[in-house]
Design a protein that fits this description.
Elements: E1 18-20, H1 31-40, H2 51-60, E2 68-71, H3 74-84, E3 91-95, H4 100-107, E4 113-116, E5 136-140, H5 152-156, E6 164-168, E7 196-201, H6 203-206, E8 214-217, H7 223-228, H8 237-246, H9 249-273, E9 289-293, H10 297-306, E10 309-313, E11 324-328, H11 332-350, H12 354-360
Parallel strand pairs: 1-10, 3-4, 3-5, 5-6, 6-7
Antiparallel strand pairs: 2-8, 7-8, 9-11, 10-11
Length: 361
């Protein structure tokens, strides 16, 4: 089966639709974030200097600045890894997950092996599935689109000398566990695992998709190779200002509060979806989106668009297919309206299949 690895949720959305396809929080920016971004516009005549932002991110994760590389969004990091590590003999991508790592590898000329996790197992990671001779491994945690949060100990088992292990933690700041003061199962602070590279994004919680700011955390001896593949001044001055602001203790505390609120809204969405006939929510979703298995989901998605809702199609993700959707977590009122509309669409499809009749005319 061929998958459109370059398809992303933003392609599902337009201004007329309620956006349940893109996993970016829609609330207004707090002043402590918007103010420094606006102030940075007065400095645009100078070339960007990443020194202060790099130090701030390093302090946030208790790392050395030499172990931090700022990027123009986490997506750029995948390209840097693919380009800088062209000598990898056996790159492996653990799917289902964000498709950009595999797309970047293939565009750089790599031959990519896939490890497919199964819905029957809740898409849980089994480290034994990854070939021993894989020298470049990509895995998401929590994983997009399955929303699975793998135990840190399971992910850590993939690290070994001679291998670069890339853990995409773009959604780690959306995770929450009562009694856990930080981000559960994150490896961002681990310096003891050989070859570990952790990718982070500031896009999701803080609504900065248009600003493009993310970063890599990894071994000081590896990061210069990645930086050499990066364009000069790759991260803009406003993006650097955002990185500094989001690394502050106040920002981290606010992030934890937002993650707790997202968890409550996600639990409500999962509960309501599991009450809808024919809908299956696998596993225990742990991020800002929920995967759904629904027979005929490809046609259901089209009908939902006609009724004002954009949801993410699942057939572009290796390991999923046309009977899968991904739904972003939104506020309770939006969830209630959406689930009611979903019920109506499924009911109408069951009562004489009017969706198919319209498609065939």
């Amino acid at each position: 089966m061929t998958f459109d690895l370059d398809h992303h949720g933003d392609a599902e959305v337009d201004a007329t639709l309620i956006d349940l396809a893109v996993n970016v929080r829609h609330q207004a920016m707090p002043g402590w974030l918007s103010d420094p971004i606006r102030s940075s516009l007065d400095s645009l005549s100078a070339y960007p200097d990443a020194t202060e932002a790099t130090a701030a991110v390093a302090a946030r994760h208790r790392r050395d600045p030499a172990e931090v590389l700022l990027t123009a969004g986490a997506a750029q990091a995948f390209v840097l890894l693919a380009q800088a590590l062209r000598g990898a003999r056996r790159p492996v991508v653990v799917h289902p997950q964000f498709t950009e790592p595999e797309a970047a590898l293939r565009n750089a000329g790599h031959v990519v092996d896939r490890v497919l996790l199964r819905a029957e197992d809740g898409f849980r990671l089994d480290p034994a599935l990854v070939p021993d001779d894989a020298d470049l491994v990509f895995v998401g945690n929590p994983t997009n689109p399955t929303a699975v949060l793998h135990p840190a100990r399971a992910v850590a088992r993939l690290a070994r000398p001679g291998r670069v292990l890339v853990v995409d933690e773009a959604f780690s700041d959306t995770t929450y566990r009562p009694g856990c003061p930080g981000e559960p199962e994150s490896l961002a602070g681990r310096r003891d695992l050989p070859g570990l590279v952790v990718l982070r994004s500031l896009t999701k919680t803080w609504g900065l998709a248009g600003l493009r700011i993310g970063y890599l955390l990894g071994p000081a001896e590896l990061l210069p190779r990645l930086a050499a593949a990066q364009p000069l001044w790759a991260v803009s001055t406003p993006a650097l200002a955002a990185a500094i602001a989001c690394a502050s203790p106040a920002a981290v505390a606010a992030e934890r509060e937002i993650a707790a609120a997202v968890a409550a809204e996600r639990d409500h969405l999962v509960e309501r979806l599991r009450q809808v006939p024919k809908v299956t929510v696998p596993g225990d979703p742990a991020s800002a989106f929920v995967p759904v298995h629904l027979p005929g989901a490809d046609r259901i998605r089209v009908e939902l668009r006609k009724r004002g809702y954009a949801v993410r199609r699942g057939d572009t993700f290796p390991g999923l297919g046309p009977d899968w959707l991904r739904i972003a977590v939104r506020d309770t009122a939006t969830t209630e309206r959406f689930v009611q509309t979903l019920r109506e669409v499924i009911h109408e499809a069951d009562a004489g299949d009017p969706i198919r009749e319209r498609d065939e005319t």
